[in-house]
Structures are given as C-alpha cells and as structure tokens.
Amino acid sequence: MKRLVVFSCPVLLMCLMLFSCQEFQKFQAHSVCEVVGDARKYSLETEVSVTGKVTNAGGVFDLKGFELQDAKGNCKLMVRTTRVTPEVGTIIVVKGKLTELVSFNDIKVLYLEEN
Q1: Is 74 domain-assigned?
Q2: What is the rounded CA–CA span in Å between residue 65 and residue 16?
Q3: Pairing verdict, β 76-81 and 107-114
C-alpha cells in the first residue's frame, strides 16, 4: 500500500503541473479585441499570445493561415502558420509576432505570424 501511494503521488503531481501550465497559458493570452483594438500597446515584432475561435482556415503549399475571432464576434485577426490549420470552431491559444501587412496614414492592417 505504501508503494502505491509513493508511486501515485509523483504521477498526480505531474498531471497537475501539465494541466496547470495549459490553464495558465489561457490566463496569459489576450483576447483578439485587446490586440486589434489597442495595437499601439503591442509593438511590431513583439511576441503575444492571443485566444479566440477559429472562423476560417485554409492554405496553399506554405501559405497557410486561419482567422481568429473573439468570444463576442466583434474582432477578427488573421494568423499565418506553418503547421496544420486548426478546425473551424476550435477555441485555441496562439503565440506569435504581430506583423504589419499594410499601412494607410494612421490605419494599420496587422496579422499574427505564429511561431
């Protein structure tokens, strides 16, 4: 019985740490509206974590990407990726660098380049 307790404690501790790391990452992530609405706060080429729901996904060869939408559906952000695009409807956390696509006077069109 003592061996079972000694063996199960480290296993439970590792499971708890793994779960807490994923949950902690969600708390660190910003919403799409935070990033899009206050783009001046996030300088270009700064790594940021964004959480949202995938609304569109697709790609050709190395040009793959998807669109993230916030929980309310007000803001959207394009994400360029090198991995397999997630399924539409999935809620995910994405880490990457904000990159400027186009700039018109004070208006900037940004997208997220996933790491």
Answers
A1: yes
A2: 32
A3: parallel
Cα–Cα nearest to 98, from 78, 83, 72, 75 = 78
Per the domain annotation, does 14 fall within a domain? Answer: no
Q: How far apart are the first and last CA of the chain?
A: 46
Tokens encoding 61: 């060869």
* Tens digits of residue pLDDT in 23-71: 444 457 888 888 887 777 777 777 889 999 999 999 887 789 999 998 8
Mean pLDDT of 82-103: 88
Spatial separation of the C-alpha atoms in residues 83 and 114, rounded to whole Å: 9
Tokens found for residue 51? 């959480």
Neighbouring residues of 33: CB distance < 8 A, sequence distance ≥ 6: 70, 72, 74, 75
Structural domains of the chain, count = 1
CA distance 17 to 85: 27
CATH number at residue 94: 2.40.50.140
Helix (H) / strand (E) containing 22: helix 2-28
| DSSP reduced 3-state for 34 | helix
DSSP label of 42: S
